[in-house]
Prior knowledge:
Two copies of one chain form a homodimer. By secondary structure, the first copy, chain A, is of the alpha+beta class.
Amino acid sequence: MAVFTQVDARDLEAFWAQYDLGEVESLKGIAEGVENSNFFVETADARYILTLFEKRVAEDDLPYFVGLMDHVAAAGFSCPQPMWTKSGKAIGRLSQRPALVTSFLPGLAVRRPSVADCASLGTTLARFHGASKGYAGKRPNNLSRSNWQAMHGQICEDVAARNQDWARLAEESLQKLNAQWPSALPMGHIHADLFPDNVFFRHGEVSGFIDFYFACEDMLAYDLAICINAWCFEGDGSLNVTKSAAFLNGYSQRRPLEPAEKEALPLLALGAGLRFFLTRAHDVIHHDPSWLVTPKDPNEYAHRMRTHLRARSAQDYGLWS
Amino acid sequence: MAVFTQVDARDLEAFWAQYDLGEVESLKGIAEGVENSNFFVETADARYILTLFEKRVAEDDLPYFVGLMDHVAAAGFSCPQPMWTKSGKAIGRLSQRPALVTSFLPGLAVRRPSVADCASLGTTLARFHGASKGYAGKRPNNLSRSNWQAMHGQICEDVAARNQDWARLAEESLQKLNAQWPSALPMGHIHADLFPDNVFFRHGEVSGFIDFYFACEDMLAYDLAICINAWCFEGDGSLNVTKSAAFLNGYSQRRPLEPAEKEALPLLALGAGLRFFLTRAHDVIHHDPSWLVTPKDPNEYAHRMRTHLRARSAQDYGLWS
């Protein structure tokens, strides 16, 4: 949660003059996002979010993200809408970073999601998957199965040195995932980072998603697996089956899950758990104290992985029908 | 630059219900301020800043700050205005912290102040000193001369161990300040933290001040000394006399400085330099890597102090008349 790159008011003025959005009246860095620098920008008429992309986001991927936001917004899905310069560009340059201006999406992120919040998330995620259909952009998921082995390889010695339990858990999970990872599930454009920070609520319902900078093509059900990990576990590490049931049923009402998707659910949840475990373990092991971001605890995700390893079917997540 | 304390959307709703400000539509942590957590809050009609006070701000001092903002706003000075609950309170409690809601002040902070910016700052500071006249609140400056010796004593061994030059510089400055610190200059309510982050501009003029949480009673000219340190030095460490002249003349046009104030200027500038040097040195020496804030470099202020030690009169800062 930080602003990594500063913006000078005069540089902003020159940058902003490329757009037809009125004069800037206020600029505030937002303590949001761990990958990019975000700013709230106000003009006389409207509010915008300015994002400067830091080095963990590949510049070549930006047109995919911009196109996806445009596509789902055109299909009626509520998300930040990219703004285009007078000469028709969406990606500019500011403070030596690629820069994007989007519309401001009102709403509040919840920190302790309720059962009703999880149900609303499910419905909205199905709407998002529907809205992204037909988008022609291409971006493989470079944080999925084919990369876990390499990610794990890079950090396994460090992980083992740090924590033998972590090493055994990652090894066991990788073996299982490599042996059983599904290959024929419905594919689509997924958000791939739907943590509560990235979902806004208004009047008790999800009002939209933000932060599409991990979005990619993958199995739609993998997006659900990420949400189960991020939304349905309690502070004590236990899975709240009432929440996962509400989430999965909310989703299924809009897009019924295929039998193979249901069957794969425990495995997909384990895969999503491993993905966040590995990146968190990497960030903890390679943490530079001068960074502005405190790494998140990998143990949270180690604990979730153990739950997914024990799960036998989608029923363990409250999905019966 | 960080949000130290998180706010849950539901806790915010309950807190906000005490006010008559309409429903919250959006909440965003602002990467601003190194002492408190700040949030941008939007309702259908207006925008507000919510501040949660962290432990470095004494709760007993809050009524002074609120009263000062109220007083200068009533006198026509542009600053955030405290909002009062329906039951007439300005300081509430949220996320286990004292909490204040103020109006949102538009404007942009500049990172590289120009000569014209310094002139506008001078005029506005004189207006602020005029507007704060008659405010009955009481708060001594606990980061001024009577405390430097103690601050220095607490950290001098650590400073000496870290850097012999720092130790010699602090010792020489303290001796000079103790021998010559003025006692009969005009007093008033000063902002005491007017770094560029805390000054907003619109259309090339200062539009207002924010962050009054170091404000106190002290010599008015001491506020000028802080500004000279914070606004009139270049990236290479040199004093830009054109900027300090523009600043001092801007101020003098509204409130002519007394001869004793002019005479004391180099010493006041040295005192202000020492104050920020000591707190920065403290933060560097006692830095806990888990903190969300990267300490600022004390050397910047060590260099300024050397400049002030060499200065012989206000003319060295461009003030002739």
